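Lesson 9: reading folded outputs for more than one chain in a single document. The general rule is that every protein is listed as its sequence immediately followed by its structure tokens, and records are never interleaved. Here is the first one.
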Amino acid sequence: MELLNHFTEFRASPELQERLKTYGIRKTYESGDVILNENAYIRSIPIVMRGTLRVIRTEEDGREILLYYIKAGESCIMSFLGGMHNERSKVKAEVEEEAEILFLPIEKVSALIKDHPEWLDYIFRLYHKRFEELLEIVNAIAFKKVDERMLTLLQKKAELTGNQTINITHEQLANELGTARVVVSRLLKRLEETGIVRLGRNSIMLL
């Protein structure tokens, strides 16, 4: 079970791999399943074995915005930070595509940090990666038009799944972009007219 080796540049020690296997609980989820809700206490840290999660922030008016994706070999740094300080979750984690997840009890995290330097390095690397992704989100919202952000998001989804056809509704896409469905529908129609995408029933194909 080479969890860390999917993401980090170093090879995790056999001892760390064995402890993750011993402490962790493996579960499988379908697309759309929510594994962590906002305001919930964090009892365990999710490490994605297979599939993809999306991490979302919801505003008081119900609008959502996509913060980042969690791929195989990665974890949610927000869960690390919240769990270590016994705080409620500030984000929602939802399954993008069928996923297998290893849940590491929060009380085991400190012991792994103390005994395995590569585990701490893994956390810092994730923190750095997520920080850069959040900066990209801030930059996109501040300086990019919605159509640019939408096309970038669609390309990222295609890259994650390895499929140029993305199964998503206009409403879901609008939620992830933090904008209105009517805006997304209008922009998608324009992209279809220019030959960049092909629209289907609850699907978008990148051409």
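And here is the second record, again sequence then tokens.
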Amino acid sequence: MRPLYGLGSLLFHVGILLVPLFYVGHVTLWGSVLPAWWPRIATGTADVLTYLALAGFAVVLLERLLVKSSRDLSRGGDIGILLMLAVLVGSGYWAAHPAASPLAPRTMLLVHMLAGNLALILTPVSKIVHCVLAPLTQLLGEVGWRFPAESGRHVAIALAKENEPI
């Protein structure tokens, strides 16, 4: 029903999930604990994902502020988390590109690390946790309906809904 919001949300999520896990700079820092085969995203690709994430952030934020139905569902903390994630993404870009940074390189790196640590601390107790839990809950739902084989069909029969999709 809101394709622009959906696209913005997708771009934002892709950027904030792929870059921290696979950007070559991050993977290099974690080199001693990650296997050698761990995939790496080159700086140019990470830059594009960062731009897309920031564009998606802008769409999501504007939607939450300007559209009444979204505004009614958003609390101040939700907007705060969005802003903190935008600081994390922006400071990461500037930490990787110190010539473009508005602050000294070490200061920008400190801002990025502090924002990243704050995001990690807030993840389990905020809406950020949906980035981890949503795929797992969808997987569990699919497994629950399809494993063991025919279990979904048996439930549908028990509910007298055998002609409806699972």
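What the second record shows: The first helix runs from residue 3 to 22.
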